[in-house]
Amino acid sequence: MDKRRTFMKILPVLAAIPAAASNDWRGEELGRHAVLGAWNSVHTLPFPPGNFREFLNFAEGGAFGETNSFLHTASALDFSAFGLPSSINASDGVGSWKWLRDGKVEIEFRKLLFDGSKANFGDLLVTGTAEVKQGMLRADWHIVVVNSSDGSLLLDFGTASSTGCRIG
């Protein structure tokens, strides 16, 4: 009889374990899916122009895409003050993202960089983390330019941030 009473006392605790584990899993899955889709963000830089618009797209399976209003196919930006060509434009950014289990995702993407003669001289390599809280995306980034032929570092632009809301 004592064994039965002991078992009856711990039965509610045992019953709660699968439910708690299930809720944690559901919470993780909701967090993992919160980032999926397209985002309209404002990216803030530590140098002029200071900020610009950017669309970020997180696809199921880890694919990532980016396009922005600052460095794109029609831009002819002068980065000669940083030791880069005086006329630069770039492709859209492509890369990947992965879940970090703490409510954040890790992102890495690249943009092909072209000089005034339309030659690819380097890649803009952007790494960062992002999270969604209360329906808003918040991200912190690190931006470098690497040589397109050997991957060596050409320029470290440093850190930047972005915030945005879901498109649609």
What do you see in this structure?
- It is a single chain.
- The chain is of the alpha+beta class and 168 residues long.
- It has one helix and nine strands, in the order αβββββββββ.
- An eight-stranded antiparallel barrel has the order 1-2-3-5-6-7-8-9.
- Strand 1 and strand 2 form a beta hairpin.
- It is elongated.
- The N and C termini lie far apart (62 Å).
- About 11% of the residues have low confidence.
Topology as a string of helices (H) and strands (E): HEEEEEEEEE
Helices, by number, come to 1
**Major sheet attributes:** 8 strands, antiparallel, barrel
> Percent of residues in beta strands?
over 45%
Helix content: 10-25%
**Overall mean confidence score, pLDDT:** 86
Q: Spatial order of the strands in the main sheet?
A: 1-2-3-5-6-7-8-9
How many strands in all? Answer: 9
Class by alpha and beta content: alpha+beta
Shape estimate = elongated
Distance between the termini: 62 Å
Question: What are the salient characteristics of this protein?
Answer:
single chain, 168 residues, alpha+beta, eight-stranded antiparallel β-barrel, 1 helix, elongated
Topology:
Blueprint: H1 2-34, E1 37-44, E2 51-58, E3 63-68, E4 89-90, E5 93-99, E6 104-114, E7 120-133, E8 136-147, E9 153-166
Antiparallel strand pairs: 1-2, 1-9, 2-3, 3-5, 4-6, 5-6, 6-7, 7-8, 8-9
